[in-house]
Specification:
Elements: H1 2-15, H2 26-30, E1 37-44, E2 48-49, H3 60-75, E3 84-88, H4 97-107, E4 114-118, H5 124-137, E5 143-151, H6 152-155, H7 166-169, H8 181-191, H9 196-215, E6 226-231, E7 238-243, H10 255-258, E8 280-290, H11 291-297, E9 303-312, H12 321-333, E10 342-345, H13 350-360, H14 373-376, H15 383-398, E11 402-409, E12 413-421
Parallel strand pairs: 3-4, 3-5, 10-11
Antiparallel strand pairs: 1-8, 1-9, 2-8, 5-8, 6-7, 9-12, 11-12
Length: 422
């Protein structure tokens, strides 16, 4: 009889294995089912300033290995049970496929744990989590890890974009894919009339929220401190330091102080180093499995993955990605924007984030309540997974339930996902 019930459960799972079959509406997504894809651990390294911060001399693979070790330790999962690991990365050649498989082995995952890497630009970390969630939902695996990592200190620069062929350069829309994001964001800000004053005000709030959150210890539960070797740029002395907090958060930032920074991409432009995301290093990882599996293993459930969306927009308007992706994700979940308690929307540029928030009519008090990428950084491949750790930490701390993570994506895309706290 028990075997028959188990088989019936498996069949039902396969029949309801696509996001289109998810129960809709806030009440429905708050309900618990053995088939829910749940998160039992989500953590990250601190985020540090590219070329200057605590991880400037640390390889991306080492950041990832540390994060994997921390995930295993914090969750107490038997690494032999983890069947697949998906890692988002943007800048490493081949998205770091070889070294990140090696990092998983160093961290304690056995050779039986598969590893893949992927690159969907700034949404890579979220895509990694979604790929694992959908593999679990579809019955391909039972337990997996979605992760993201980036060392912008070592791999950021013009070499990250390969030369276009004549075929691509001769296509009017295709050639726009290589327009630098700073330049196209400057143009978007001008076209959409997002003034420097509005951008600086948004950026100042991001810094102020992050500063207050850090002082209050709000990030402590999502951060795994890391001991690294660091070369003092003044003395060239190599030291061993413990990096335990985001080092890009600048104290005392105001609209007035931001107003003194020179434009970065255009002489009379509005975008500068203070109202755009920071170049950063960091890693994050998320452990996922079915609720029934988590309960059987005694895993603490943080919450569940509900659904996700990915969309395309014009390459020159990549910044509007969240504006298009978020409504699609909300429609899949069957909820309205007013039913979302916390929004984690990546602050690639204040200009695009402000525009998306305004056009979607979101309550700004719910958006990045502890600051965002302008204040503590955007390690490209890491951010999507980092947002999941930050979101669940905030939902747990405040007793709220429904959250959305989202970001714009280079070359003209957007992605979003809906999550529910246990």
């Amino acid at each position: 009889m028990a075997k028959a019930q188990q088989r019936l459960s498996q069949v039902q799972s396969h029949l309801a294995s696509s996001e289109a079959d998810i129960p809709r509406g806030r009440e429905n997504i708050l309900e618990k089912s053995p088939e829910d894809v749940v998160v039992t651990c989500a953590l990250r390294t601190p985020l540090t300033r590219g070329g200057k911060g605590g991880f400037k001399d640390t390889a991306a693979a080492d950041l990832l290995a540390h994060t994997f070790r921390s995930l295993i330790s914090h969750s107490r999962i038997d690494p032999n049970l983890v069947e697949d690991v998906s890692v988002g990365n943007v800048l490493a050649p081949g998205a770091g496929a070889t070294e990140y498989r090696a990092a998983a082995l160093v961290a304690g995952f056995p050779e039986t744990t598969a590893v893949k890497t992927l690159n969907r630009q700034c949404s890579s970390g979220l895509q990694a989590c979604v790929d694992i969630a959908n593999a679990i939902r579809g019955g391909m695996i039972d337990i997996g890890v979605g992760a993201g990592v980036e060392s912008m200190s070592s791999q950021y620069g013009p070499g990250a974009v390969s030369e276009f062929s004549e075929l691509l350069d001769n296509h009017p829309e295709a050639k726009n894919c290589k327009v630098p994001m700073g330049a196209l964001s400057e143009q978007m800000a001008s076209d959409r009339k997002i003034t420097r004053g509005v951008q600086d005000a948004f950026a100042a709030r991001s810094f102020q929220k992050a500063e207050a959150a850090q002082k209050a210890g709000k990030f402590r539960d999502e951060i795994s401190p890391m001991k690294v070797k660091w070369v003092d740029p003044k003395t060239e002395e190599e030291k061993e330091i413990v990096v335990d907090k985001d080092d890009g958060i600048r104290a005392g930032m105001t609209v007035e102080s931001l107003g003194k920074i020179k434009p970065a991409f255009k002489k009379d432009g509005s975008i500068h180093a203070g109202n755009a995301s920071q170049v950063s290093d960091g890693a994050a990882a998320v452990l996922l499995m079915k609720r029934s599996t988590a309960e059987r293993l005694g895993q603490t459930i943080l919450g569940k993955f509900v659904c996700s969306s990915v969309v395309g927009v014009k390459p020159l308007l990549m910044g509007i990605g969240p504006w298009k992706a978020i409504p699609v994700a909300l429609e899949k979940a069957g909820i309205g924007k007013e039913e979302v308690d916390v929004w984690e929307i990546n602050e690639a540029f204040a200009s695009q984030c402000v525009w998306c928030v305004q056009q979607l009519g979101l309550d700004e008090a719910k958006v990045n309540p502890n600051g965002g990428a302008i204040a503590f950084g955007h390690p490209l491949g890491c951010t999507g997974a980092r947002q999941v750790a930050t979101l669940f930490n905030e939902l747990r701390r405040t007793g709220k339930k429904v959250g959305v993570t989202s970001m714009c994506v280079g070359t003209g895309m957007g992605m979003a996902a809906v999550w529910v706290k246990e």
